[in-house]
């Protein structure tokens, strides 16, 4: 990394923080990571990042929030391997896929978080919603092995992270949802493997903390 370092505010359990780590690793960049001082949403953190959300990235004087915006910003700077796409059509496609994951699939999975450890039955409608969005994603994607095609790109960052959330909810709530396609392709990338393992462990710890609260 050049003289100016990339500083990532992130937490171990945040899915969008995982997405950013995946993006930085795919780009082949190095970064330093800090937890949000005082926790996300704290007054202390909001003095640095007014939105109070993670991830946030500092690069020199610039502070950027929103995972897709951060990835596009790094592409715009020419830092690391580009992820958004090389031509207008692939850029538009990758952005649309990324929004489907962030705005549809991830919230539908997140809605099930309160059920973990509660003993409650997952409503069929909630499971069907997730399944419908996954089917839409499948219809919109080509032969792969990645969402972006032969090489991984913007939407793969989100799907890799969200796929791990799905995997852990599948286990905790016996959802019986199919693994997101591309999951094996992500695991096979040496740059991603340690981040996948670390996030998987963080999710397992979180599930355990809900199942047997102290
Ligand atoms: N759309 C944002 C979502 C970021 C987000 O919601 N992060 C969560 C943690 S996974 C957070 O900071 N939540 C605190 C809040 O929303 O106030 C992105 O893509 O970065």
UniProtKB/TrEMBL annotation:
CDD domains: GST_N_family. Residues 4-82 form the GST N-terminal domain. InterPro entries: Glutathione-S-Trfase_C_sf (IPR036282), Glutathione_S-Trfase_N (IPR004045), GST_Omega/HSP26 (IPR050983), Thioredoxin-like_sf (IPR036249). This is Glutathione S-transferase N-terminal domain-containing protein. Pfam families: GST_N_3 (PF13417). It comes from the Bacteria.
């Amino acid at each position: 990394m050049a003289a100016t370092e990339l500083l990532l505010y992130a937490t171990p359990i945040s899915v969008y923080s995982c997405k950013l780590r995946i993006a930085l690793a795919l780009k082949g960049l190095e970064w330093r990571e800090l937890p949000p001082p005082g926790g996300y949403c704290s007054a202390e953190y909001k003095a640095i990042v007014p939105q109070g959300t993670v991830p946030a990235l500092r690069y020199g004087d610039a502070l950027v929030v929103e995972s897709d915006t951060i990835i596009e910003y790094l592409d715009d700077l020419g830092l690391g391997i580009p992820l958004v796409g090389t031509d207008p059509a692939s850029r538009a496609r990758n952005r649309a896929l990324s929004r489907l994951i962030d705005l549809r699939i991830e919230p539908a999975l997140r809605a099930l978080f309160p059920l973990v450890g509660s003993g409650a039955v997952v409503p069929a409608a909630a499971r069907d919603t997730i399944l419908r969005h996954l089917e839409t994603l499948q219809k919109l994607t080509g032969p792969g092995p990645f969402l972006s095609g032969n090489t991984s790109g913007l939407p793969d960052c989100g799907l890799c992270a969200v796929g791990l959330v799905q995997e852990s909810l599948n286990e905790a709530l016996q959802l019986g949802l199919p693994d997101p396609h591309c999951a094996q392709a992500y695991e096979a990338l040496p740059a991603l493997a340690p981040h996948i393992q670390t996030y998987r462990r963080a999710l397992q710890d979180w599930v355990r903390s809900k199942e047997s609260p102290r």
